[in-house]
Amino acid sequence: MIFLDAAATTPVRREVLEAMWPYLSGDFGNPSSHHSLGEAAATALAAARSAVAKVLNCRAGEVTFTSGGTEADNLAVKGIALARQAADPAVNRVAISGVEHPAVEESARYLERVHGFAVDVIPVDGDGLVTVDALKSVLRPETALVSIMYANNEVGTVQPVAELAAAAHELGVPFHTDAVQAAGWLPLDVKGLGVDALSMSGHKLGAPKGSGVLFTKGRLRLEPLVHGGGQERGRRSGTENVAGAVALSTALTLASAEQDDAALRVSGLRDRFIAAVLATVPDAVLTGHPTKRLPSVASFCFPGTSGESVLLELERLGVVCSSGSACAAGSDAPSPVLLALGLDAETAQTAVRFSVTSAITPAELEQAAEAVETAVGRVRKLAQT
Ligand code: PLP
């Protein structure tokens, strides 16, 4: 089987499994316990936090461990907006891009529904990019937060985060970025990016599902969403997932050391794959920005097919990937991301996303490109009968 669905999740790396195993077995203590087992767990948690902080170029105290990217996004969007409103009731808007993951979009909608915030959706261009002018046109002094993702999960477009964050700061508005897809491929230096908050997830880079991180800058106030024993400096109560934190920090450290080589190699393979698909299916439409895109993602619409049918055919041919709307579980509605890029609903239904880990080989992608030609041909033939 050729696995081309790494943007959905990745297998756990052996080094990661080995690093986390002691905290699931011998050193299984609760980090809040005042005995040697608890201390061993607390020490491991502190080391994991420092390792994450090193990659993010921030202080350990600015790292909050969460249950994943979704929780980190929720905590950022709701937590920052609610804390800012508590300090100044005039603050009552949030600005998000039109291509955010539901974890951000639905958090903003929650603020609208339950707390009376207005949501400003910043439009993207045909390649999925947010421009500084588009952001500036929605920014107001009463904007609590801007949240714009680093890299898109469906089409791979990479946003000019540093420029966008600087524009938000001109009006004194904090800037959050969802870096779930960027992690492992793009620099995560929060000072270089100039962001006030950044979320990421372990399972996209070789850690198990159920671990995530939210960076929040310095004294930026955050209203907690989970109340209890005050763990994670009161930002996120609940006994810490020590093994998950160790796993995430190990995976992130490995990925960041390998990142430059991996990004160079994989983006070359991705470009060859894109060229091969466009050569054999000439009317295929590459979605997302042609160059400002994740090294690991190639996404297309195949007019005259349905994305789901192409997926099924590809799986029969031994290639596993996803349709554009993979993140909206169980939904066969056209992807809001593709609609935001200006595609019509019919074309958006024909989307297929191919995404790879750094372990991908040239031979696998050559075989996959041949399978795409066959699968699209078969689906089109069936549609005509
Ligand atoms: N944000 C983006 C851009 C994603 O792609 C995903 C997952 O696909 C998430 C957030 C949610 O992360 P998690 O699966 O860790 O909850």
Provide key terms for this protein:
about 375 residues, alpha/beta, Aspartate Aminotransferase, domain 1, Aspartate Aminotransferase, domain 2, four-stranded antiparallel β-sheet, about 15% strand, binds pyridoxal-5'-phosphate
Summarize the structure.
With 385 residues, the chain is an alpha/beta fold.
Fold blueprint:
Layout: E1 2-3, H1 14-20, H2 36-56, E2 63-66, H3 69-87, E3 93-97, H4 102-115, E4 118-122, H5 132-138, E5 143-147, H6 161-170, E6 175-178, H7 190-193, E7 197-201, E8 212-216, H8 242-280, E9 285-286, E10 297-301, H9 307-316, E11 319-320, E12 322-323, H10 336-340, H11 345-348, E13 351-355, H12 362-384
The chain binds pyridoxal-5'-phosphate.
Residues 68-70, 73, 101, 103, 149, 153, 178, 180-181, 201, 203, 212, 327 line the site of pyridoxal-5'-phosphate.
